[in-house]
Structures are given as C-alpha cells and as structure tokens.
Amino acid sequence: MKHTCTAPKLMGLIMVVVLIFSCASRPSHDVQFYGPDFQVEIERYQNMLDSNLTYLERNSDRFGIDKVDQHQMLDRAAKADLILVWASVLDYMAHLEMIRYTHNGFLFDPKAGINFESLINYYWAFLVQSSRAVHFIHIIDRNGALLTILDEGHPEYGLEANTYTQFKSHFLNVKQAAEFAALQIIYRDQRPDVNPYYSRIAMLEGYNTSLGIDYGVRMSVRHARDVIENQSFSWWYPIQKNFAEWIGHVRVFREGENLISFKDILEIQSELNPGDILFQRREWYMTNAGIPGYWTHAAFYVGDSLERADYFDSDSVRAWVRAEGVASGSFEELLESTFPEAYAGNNLQLDSLGSQTVLEAIGKGVVLQSLSTSLTCDGLGVVRPRLSKADKAKSIYNAFQYFGRGYDFNFDFLTDSSLVCSELIYKSFEPGTDYSGVPFITTEVAGRVMTPVNIMVKQFDQEHDSINLDFVLFYDGNEFEKMSVRKDEAAFRDSWRRLGFYQSIPSDKLLMSED
C-alpha cells in the first residue's frame, strides 16, 4: 500500500507570505536567533515547501500545468509569480541542505557510534528535500515553457542560468535513490523501540517511494554505511559552488552575536541624518528562508528632537510648517501636536545611544526603536534621499502617522491600516503634488502589489542617475573576520545580486552578472 502525504492546511500561507516573515520577525529587545531545534526548523521548511506546491496546483490553469505535455506561455504577472516560487523553493532546499551538512557526521565517529538524533535530523531533512523536489519537478515538467523560464538567469534572486536543469539532474539521479535506500536501512537498524519520529518518517518514506525515489535493491547495514560514506558532500545549489569548502572554516551559528559591533554603531550614528533609509541583513535566521534576494529589511532613521531641530533649521521648513498651521514654524511643535504618542516614544531615552530614533515595521507593528536595537544585524546599507530639507521633513511627518499601526500579514500595499517594512518606506517617500519624494517601483506578485526590499536596492543601482537617492555607507558582514567590513558604493550597488541564502560567503564568490 502506498503512503500519501496530506497537504497541510496552510491556506493563509501562500507563496507571498515568505516575503513578509523577514520583516515580521525583526528582533526588538527580545532577540531570537536561529537556534538548534532542528526538528522545528525542518517541519517549518516542509510546511512552506508544501505551501508553494499547493499554490502552484491551485493556480494550475494560470501556470499551464493543469494537464501534461503542454507548452503554454505565461503572462508577465504569472511569470513573476513562478520565478518567486522557484527562488523560494531553492532557498528552503538550501536550508535543508545546511541542516544535513551540520549533521552529516552522525555515522563517522567509530568511538561514539551513530548519534540517533543527528541521524534523524539528517534523514528527515533528506526526505523532505527529495520528496518535495521531485513533486516540484513533476509539476513544472507538465508545461515545457516553464523549463525555459526557470533555466533563465534571474540575478535579482541570485539565480544563474541552467539552475533548474542542475536541480533536476541532482534529484533525479541514481545516487539520490541509493542514498535513500541506504539511509532507510541505517535508520531501521538504529531506531529505538519508542520512536517519536516514527509516523513522520514513515509518511515521508512512503511519499518518496510513491514518487519513484527508490533504489529497489537489498543491501546490508554495512554496505549502506559505505554508500553514505562514499556520498561526498557536494553542494548542488549552482551559485553556492564554493560553499562546501568555505563552511569548514567558520562557525555555523553565532547565537547572541552580530557582525555589526557596538563600535560600528557609534560610527554609523555619527554619519546618519534624519530621513536616511536603512537596508539591513541578518544571517543564520530561519526567517531568511524563502526570502529571495540579499536585503530583507528596511527601516527609517527619523532622528530625535535635538537632531531634527538642528538639521531642519531652515526657512523652507519653517514656511511649510507655518502653512500647516503652526505659527512658530517649529517642525518639532508640528510633530508633537499632531502625533503626541509617537513623539513621546521617539524621545524616550532607552540606552547609551539615546532615544528611539528608528521607525520600522516588524511583527509587533510599526514601532520606534533605538539605533542599537535596530542594528542587531550583520549587513547594513544606508542611502539618503536627494531631497530638500522641507521634503525630508514631510517624509518624516508622513512616517509618523503610521506609528502604532499593525503589521500587514496580508502584504497589501493598497491598505494603510497595517504595513510591512518596505511599505513604510514606500509610503513615507511616495511622491505627491507638492512633494518630489522618491518614486520606488512596485511589482505584482501573487496578485498583490509590493516592493521587496532587495528590489529597492536594485532600483538604486540601476536607476542611480535618476532616482533621488545618494549612497551614505555600507557595512558588509564577513564571517571569516567575524566582523562587518566597511565597503564602498560600488560594492553596495552590486549587493542586490547576491544569493539570499547564508550570504556571509565573501561577495566575490557569489556576485551575479547581468548576462
């Protein structure tokens, strides 16, 4: 009897949700790092892979996969959706591969013997990888046009040409089937009488067998071990071809540590002006999985009352404020009278770095945080709107109105009652009749209009001469040095091309070209 895998009830977690987890899970004071509970992580990746597969199946006519042997062209919106699903699937697969790598020594310690917990982590990750990969391939191969689309290079998501062909060759391979058979034998030899993983592993084994991922031969436990031992670890993700060599020289998890140091933050603070936009990157977070592109969070540096009073001491600002009904022309008075709660929070002293000078949308909603809290990250890029003092003041005024609103888990830019991180930046700088602003582009994904953070940085690079933004600084996380290294504008403009998964490998290994 063949086992089947029941699709999880994740109707609210369709493909687009992966884009919002990064901002929603931004740390505040209660920082949570990528932790050691591998079973929880594997199950999360399995659920999100299933969500992507369900999304494709439920929109089968749109993607031309409602029947086999088709060659149906896609419209622009459907093509954009498909590429985002593809990039997300690869990210989840890569995270599962990372878990396998972390536990691939489960069998090679002759003194300690096999560590069953590590065996489970390795085997479970393998089963999820192989079953969902083959399921994805079965879906995509129904429409010949999709193969061409996925094999194109998509540098904005860190995908080079022929990625799908390499993906297929890896998972539809006799070595993959042999490893499945070998792992199955070792697992059955090692499993205890009381096995809390029995039902989950059995379902996944059945799923793999039903998809034809079965070597179909008998082998001894000893031979099975030889098969696993001879399966040298090879990173199949094409863009990550240097990963296996690199990973042996660094510590995988940096719990409680960030590559941007307190000293860096002091230097960064000295160079910021009210109105600056902060693009951030955090390594080793589960929430990075499925977020295509390198930059995953954006925040707004609004400064405090003293900074703003000095910075906006100009006739143009005073004239605008008077036009808003404040006779004194004081921008601070306008903010305090219009947004008293936000203004009080903005000037609340929290730590040695001063008050809450950063406005950002995280899981708790649109909040104010200190710079030291916001910069619990590993990579940082800062750009400065090329606007007049009056227009920058208007941007901060626009942003203050969103303080206290909820986080938009529906990722809908058409509503203002709740926002995501990039939406806060987009709407704060949205051009108006008497306001030049910054015209960030939007894209439609899964029927929703949005502006992913990485696309904002891409736009800064590609429209550098016309967009109203100037480069301020770039700190690039470097795992070799255990620090964030300051780099120039050219490096920052290239950064959007990086792969989103564990982008702590030196950038020269991973930068993509436009070709």
Describe this structure in words.
The chain has 21 helices and 13 strands. The chain folds into two domains: 29-241; 262-509, endopeptidase fold (from Nostoc punctiforme), CATH 3.90.1720.10. The protein has 515 residues and is of the alpha+beta class. A seven-stranded antiparallel beta sheet has the order 6-5-2-1-7-12-13, with helices on both faces. Strands 3-4 form a two-stranded antiparallel sheet. A two-stranded parallel ribbon has the order 8-9. A hairpin with a 2-residue loop joins strand 10 and strand 11. The longest helix has 27 residues, at 76-102. It has helices spanning 18-24, 38-58, 60-63, 76-102, 116-140, 144-151, 163-171, 174-190, 198-210, 221-230, 243-247, 262-271, 305-311, 315-323, 331-338, 340-346, 371-374, 389-400, 421-428, 453-462, 489-494, and strands at 276-281, 297-301, 349-351, 354-355, 358-362, 365-369, 379-385, 406-407, 418-419, 443-445, 448-450, 469-478, 483-487. The two termini are 49 Å apart.
Q: With helices defined by DSSP (H or I, 4 residues minimum), what is the helix count? A: 21
CATH architecture of the largest domain: Alpha-Beta Complex
The outline comes out as elongated
Average pLDDT for all residues = 78
Features:
endopeptidase fold (from Nostoc punctiforme); disordered C terminus; 515 residues; 7-stranded antiparallel β-sheet; alpha+beta; 44% helix; single chain
